[in-house]
# Entry
Amino acid sequence: MDAAAAVARVKAVQGAFQVLVMLQLTAIHWPEQTVLPVVPDGMITDRYDFIIVGGGSAGCVLANRLSESSHVRVLLIEAGGDPPFETMLPGLLAYIPETAQDWNFTEEYDKNRELYQKNLVMPLTQAKMLGGGSSMNYMFYVRGNPHDYQTWADTVDDQSWNYSNILPLFKKSEYMDDPGLLKSKYSKFHGTSGFLHVSRQPDHAVHDYEEMFRELGHKILPDVNGDETLGYGQPTYTIAKGVRQSTSFSFLRPVKHRHNLDVLKNTFATKILFDDSKNAIGVEALTEDHKKVVLMADKEVILSAGALNSPKLLLNSGIGPDAHLNSLGIKVISNLPVGQNLQDHPGTLVAYKFKKANEPPHPPNYARFPLPPLDGFVAFDKDQSYPDYQAIPFAIPNDSDGPLQFCSFNFGLEYDICQAIYEAGKGREMLFAVVNLLHPKSRGNVELQSTNPIDPPLVTVAALSDEADLEKLALALADFDKLRTSSYFKSVDGEFVDHKLPKCGGLEVGSREYWRCHVLSTRITMYHYSGTCAMGSVLDSRLRVRGVQRLRVADGSAMPNITSGNINAPIIMIAEKAAEMIKQDNNC
# Structure
């Protein structure tokens, strides 16, 4: 098989799944579409206490928690529809991007991609359905490091955001399904009565690699969310009983019949409405058939549309940098750095050949994560308490086409590179690793391209635009490459895979120059967009938008600094905290 054929196969499977969408096989799990009243002049309108814009990782949590107060009316608005069948089975995660369930945003011009990668347009996969990113992501449950939250607390001068104070919120969400962890010393870090089912999927295929990393001086962690976060361990997932635990499945599905919770699907919010005193009083939106909807909020409007769409809606509504808004003729309601401070975890790929093998292929088990991984968190300075980089090495059986598909379709790298990795795995077991920088200095931004709310935002990721990030990510690859000195690597005649990087020919593998070139040639995004409506600049510590009233943002855009790892669990925590603050401030 070649890379082009692998991508074509993915597209064919996606086409079949999109046909199944018409059958609404999963509709039984989700809330029914709310039917709004039509007033005499033909305008569709209604009133609520709370309106939540965005039914993603955070929005579904907020819808659940705010509607616990039976005397308030809550509306959840989601631009997408029900999560389709393939979102529910963990093993089908590779088939969800670049479909109708994806916003299909792309990155603005990046000179490094032009110089080192033929594919000039990098897709910025963002989910467009109930559950949002939690319905599309790789399901790793990673809370981050206590240092992350102390940084937040110091930034906003509010110690309620430090780790000791937000740990109960993580536990509040969680229903830990793993009996081994619950019987261990790590049980005190986990909840057993929340909505979000979390589990492990132990796999003996990574055992030799665990011992290899142990020999290299890394701790082997039974739980990366316990009291130690530096080391390697088998991941914890938002998977239970073979089903993806998106927030739509875990938080929204159990409360879909609440009388005081309405859900508008396939409804696109276009503007936040304000009165003359700068109180957010409602939302304008377009239905699937392009009818205008006016929805009034008596208490608050909460944005949970994600780090790309929440700033876009604020900008369209007159909240943002005055120079940018004035250039588009948008009246400025509050001059704030909305859309700035965009952060992501820049990643890179690297592969190694290990044991010779000729095992026949195993049939896929779609109830499990498709490739057995480890999850590693490493600090360059061994006295440092928080990690600098994350490594996710996947144990690949011989002759697997998994890396070919992920490399060429999901990560969007050049076909020649992906083909080289695939060919290297013939007759060999492999480690196929994603290595990403956890605390980059580079910052991007989100802007409007026009005043038409339907137009996608202009997203400049600006990954590795700070030279220090390129150096650190290259250093991370060099540090990970120490596996070539391990006794296991030598005992199986391990080899570094020649990735056939066109710009890196002639450079010595292992040199600083080679690793810099390798990073630039294989740079990917981890899809961890955050920081564009950050606390401390756009928001106060209670997630309220500065300069206006009755408007909050509760999603990944609220992070002042990105966390040390996958961001879905922290976003769920933010929503839990937001719900508690909203209830307190509104006497619910």
